[in-house]
Specification:
single chain; about 210 residues; mainly alpha; 9 helices; globular
Amino acid sequence: MSTAAARHQRLHSELRERICLLDYPPGTKLSEEALAAEFGTSRTPLRRVLARLEDEGLVESRHGIGTLVTDVDMALMAQVYDLRLHLAALTGQLDPLPVTPGVRAEIRDFVTRGEALLAAPDPRAFAALNSAYHRFGLSLTGNAPLRETAARLYYLTARIWLTSIPRMNLTSECAIFLGEMRETETALAAGDTAAAALIRRAHISMSVHRMTR
């Protein structure tokens, strides 16, 4: 990856993460001048990143106003979650990659981080770990279009969890998340990426039920 492409990817990932962790809540105006100064870049590459985020449904450009973080469309989210359920299973079927010692070390690290989170539950830390864990799950498939589509859909729905926290039991959610990671560790220890994908699918389905009940 070229230096310019790497900078673009880092800036895109950082702004997307801030949106999904509600550091930039819906309605926030993103100042091109401030962001360009913060990241030490010109406005041209920044505008490319903002255009990409707009294409992903996370921001919108309004004439005479600027670039605003979008709100969550709950009717659309229901459809997105349905699609995510199907894609989750496919990550274990389409071009699964070998379960290397490095992969096993990664899932062990996630379990350790999950145990620390359960000991000290925190909404933002939960959301950040969930985001990292999602990227790890997608790294188990070599199918690039699947990874790209699944990531795009994930970030469309990522904000829902944080907005739902006041109605949920955070300690219970952390325990459930840790349980998922432990089940996945067992599956990957056996080299079974298909089972790991089905575990992810089941937990996505259950989390949707808990958020909407």
